[in-house]
Structures are given as C-alpha cells and as structure tokens.
Amino acid sequence: METKKIMVCDDDQGILDVLEMLLETEGFGVYTEINSTNLVDQIVSKSPDLLLLDLWMPLLSGDQVLKTIRNTDPIKNLPVIVLSASVDGSDISKDAGADSFVAKPFDMDDLVQKIRSLLSN
Amino acid sequence: MNNDLAIYLQALNSTNCGVIITDNTQRDNPIIYCNKAFETITGYTTDEIIGHNCRFLQAQDRSQAEREKLRESINNGENCKVEIRNYKKNGNLFWNELFISPVKNEKGEITHFIGIQNDISDKKNAEHQLREEKHSVERKITERTKELSDKETFLSSIIQTVRESLLVLDSDYKVLSANNHFLSSFKVTLEDTLGKVLFELGNHQWDIAPLKELLTKILPTNNPVVDYEVEHHFPYIGKKVMLLNAYRIEFEGEYKDRILIAIEDITEKKELDRRKDDFLSVASHELKTPLTTIKGLVQLLQRMAPNGPTEKFISLLDKASLYVDRLNILISELLDTSKIQSGNIELHREPFDIDFLVKDTIENLSMANSAYTISLSGETKAVVNGDELQISQVINNLISNAIKYSPESDKVDIDINVVGNFVKITVTDFGMGINTEDKMKIFDRFFRANTIQKKFPGLGIGLYVSKEIINNHNGTLWVESEVGEGSTFSFTLPIMKKENHGN
Prior knowledge:
The complex is a heterodimer.
Chain A: E1 5-9, H1 13-25, E2 29-33, H2 39-46, E3 50-54, H3 62-70, E4 80-84, H4 89-96, E5 100-103, H5 108-120
Parallel strand pairs in A: 1-2, 1-3, 3-4, 4-5
Chain B: H1 2-14, E1 18-23, E2 31-34, H2 36-42, H3 46-49, H4 65-76, E3 80-87, E4 93-104, E5 110-119, H5 121-161, E6 165-169, E7 175-178, H6 180-185, H7 190-193, H8 201-204, H9 209-218, E8 225-234, E9 238-248, E10 259-265, H10 267-303, H11 311-341, E11 350-353, H12 354-368, E12 373-377, E13 382-386, H13 388-404, E14 411-419, E15 422-429, H14 436-441, H15 450-453, H16 462-472, E16 477-482, E17 486-494, E18 497-498
Parallel strand pairs in B: 12-14
Antiparallel strand pairs in B: 1-2, 1-5, 3-4, 4-5, 6-7, 6-10, 8-9, 9-10, 11-13, 13-18, 14-15, 15-17, 16-17
Helix pairs in contact in B: 10-11, 11-16, 12-13, 13-16
C-alpha cells in the first residue's frame, strides 16, 4: 500500500517534532512547515494527502491559509484537520472549511483515528 | 317711690354682672353699693368692702397699663371700658371686663361712678389658649418648613454627589431633574436638559430604541426594571454601554407616575473585562502550547516503551499523563471562570440528543476510571437546544467530582429522566457527603470545603462554572447530600422537542 503523506504546519517546533515522531511511527510520510506563509506553495509542490494545521500563527493565521487552500484549485479538496489550543478554535476552523478539529493538548489515539478516517473517505 | 326702688334693687341683684357704685364726693372715692353678682364674682361680702376704694381688687398686681386708663377716665369724668386682672378674696385671678360711668349732678359735678363688672376669665383663657396654639402651630410650621428644606437640601446633595447619573422624568418622559453626574458624563447643560423630552435631548442623540422600549413598553408592566443594558453610540462622546435601573412611582399623590432612572456607565468596565478575557485567552493558548508538546512526548514514551516495561515504568508515565491533563483542565477552568464572570461566555446553541451526550460522556469517563462502575439508568428521548460542549463539560465535571470525592467507593449512578418540560440528570455518589454549611457555598467561585482542602487538588471553580452554564441554559443545578451518605447532584434543562423514534 502506498505511504500516505501528511503535511504538518505549526509555529511551535516542539509540537512539530512530536507530531513528526508520532506520524512516522504510525507509518505516514511527514512534511513539516513552521512558516505558514510558505504553506500553500509547499502543499502545491509536495501534494500531501492530508494537512494538520495550527490556527494561531504569526504573519498568517491558520484559518486564512485554509481559506486560500479552499480557493486554490488543485488543492481545494485537501482533507484538513485543525489543531488548536484556542477556545474558539472549533468554530473558527468550521467557518474556514476544516474537515475536523482537534483541541490541543490532543490525545494521540484520537488524532490518529481522525486522520485514518479522513484518509479512508 | 320706695316700692320702685325695691324693684330696681331687685333688678340689680338679678343680673350676672357685678355692679358697684362709688361716692365721688367723698375722699378716695369709696364703694357705697355692690350687688349680689359682685359678691359672687369676687367672693367678698358687701360688708367687707363698703367704704373701700376699688383698687383692693387688683391686690399686688399694680403695674397694669389699664389702671392708667381708668385713673384718667375717672379724673376726666368719662365713660371707660377696660379688661383688667383682678383678684378674688381667695387670691384667685379673674379677668374683669370693667365698664365705669360717671354720674353728674345738675351742676355737672361728678357725684358717683357706676362700675359694671363681667368675669371674662373663660373668654380670656380661651383667647390665650388660642393664641398659644396659634403660636405653637406657627412654630411647628416654621420647624417643619425648615426640616423639609433641610431634607430637600440633604437629598439633593446626595443626588448630586453620587457617582451615577440620575434622572427624574414626568409621565411624558420630560426631564424634571438631572444630577451633576449625568450632565458631566453626557456633556450636556442643565438648561438644555430640563423640560425636554428625554428622547429629544442633544438633537435626538438620546433617541435610543432600547431605551424607548424600556420606558414605553417594559416599565409600564414590569416596575421596577433593574440592570437593563443599553449600548449606544453618541455622536459627540462615542460609544457608551449603560446599565439602567428604572422605577415608576406608583404611590398616589404629587409624584405619581414620575420615572426615576439611574444610569451606570459600564463602558470602561466592559472594555476592561474584554481585555482581561483576551489576555486570559492568549495566556491559556500560550500555556497550552508547551503542554501539548509535553503531553505528546509522554504519549510517545508510552507508545515506544521498551519491550516488557516494568509496571513501575508504566505507572510513572500514566501519572505524568494524568498530571498533564489536570494542568490542562485548570488552565481551561481559569479561562471559563473569567469569561463567565464578565458574562462573555458564548452559547453555541444547537439541538442535540441529550441521551447520547450523557452516554458518550460516561463512556469516556469509564475508560479513564476503570476502577469505578459508572452506571446509567433511564432515558429521555429528548432533544435539547443548547451548547453541547458546555453541557458535556457539566456532566463531566459532576461525574469527575463524584469519583474524586468518593475514594472509598467504586460506583457512581447516573439517572436521566423527563420531568414536565425538562430533562433531569442526576449524578449520585456514595462518598463522603457534604455538610449543611458547605452545601450553601459549594457553588460559590473559589470555594473549597475545609474537609477537602488538603486532600484533593482543585481551584474550586468547577461547580461554579457548571451552575452558571446550567443557569445560562435556563435550567437549575442543585445538590442533596448528607455527611457520610454520599451526594446527589441534579440539573434540569428545558426540552426543545421529543424525538420521534417511530420513524
């Protein structure tokens, strides 16, 4: 079976590291991006199967990036899970067009289950 | 002729007026006759006074102005009428209305004086009393007037001193008075305000729909109105958030139907609350970010544990994970409390299946607390319109408390049911229970019962937040408990509709 590739975008290096380790042990290919302004280009060039996206990031917030993604033709249907520690994260991500939302700090089993379920659709 | 005299004398004795006759031709004008009435009035007998001058009636009271008048009239041989203080034989004072009239002979010489006396003490006393009463009434009126004006000054200085705007309107919403705070807060002058209809003040700046609604629609049927919030953008002073109390005077009289309005300017408080909430939102986000990494690392360690890890190893990681979760909950609770206090917690109402939510919450908690049996009884088949996440937080909180405070027990019972138009959810534990005194306070913010203070960690905001959430959903949350017998927490939520499982 082809290895599924996941793009992770978060402005916190610690979270990127943890997610990278987790997803690799789960057998996914992982790309990480700490700078949200590069994200759309990265997605277009790397064409991952799913995006894990933080909300509160400097320069360009997650919901802004997500709206751009939803309006960019080749990647508009990319499955996106928003990860955020923000209280109103759930509402913001829903409005911006996320497929799913996971609150930080997250439970790994819960996150992996959501990823697999989105990828299998 | 003798016969006639006898009749005249009898006539004189029949009158109630005292009559005396003095002989002016003799030295010192002695009394030569007095009638019966004179004896009755003065208490003297004829024999005792015949030959005396009349002045003995004045006893020691010699300084009356009327005496001068009498003397003058006698000297000039004129009629004279005086009211003079006289004294009876027993020394009692009586007021004597004395009329004297000279009797002249053919040559015009005064031979006699006739004195007619009336005891007018009663009349005098009545007059005196009347005068006294009049004085006293006048004095009282003066006192009352001063008291009233003092009170008015006092009241108006209170009204002018309070740090809140106060307005008095008549029944047509015209401003009858406005205090200094109102004038300075809203930058208006007294001249531009008094007598004007409130809604027309400042070129209709006060034509505020919610304010009109309050005065014309709400107040007439809901008097008084308390804590009515009005937000308005004034062209010159900018946005104001005002908290109003309005009271229409209902007692009969001059002030009936006047309207009192107290206005608290909470613009700054609102702004501060918002900034505090914003700050805590950022703080909670920033605290949770490294916590996410820590939790992730702990979970990775749990996953990557070497083959056949010792029980010790597993339990250490489990503990680390537990404390990370606890810290996460504390951070969330702090933010919730802050938002609830400032009234900024938003309800995202959507219809949801309450039975499913309760089951789901119980399942999650059962996994995390395998030592406890959390059993569920009853069902509602009801749909509730509310914030599912918040209600789940309440159920979670109540069950977590039930477990936390019953360390000696191993079960928690949940019951869900329909009561009237409400669902009722009951969480029963078999733990230590709550004493009566603490029962009153457990829903207070930051309250922690002394008995649990040291044994169990916590900020004391879980129940406070839960109660606020249930209140915001128009339900109630309460507790029944006996020390040593466990506790039962119940809450109700209005039902939106019943699910139709038939289809």
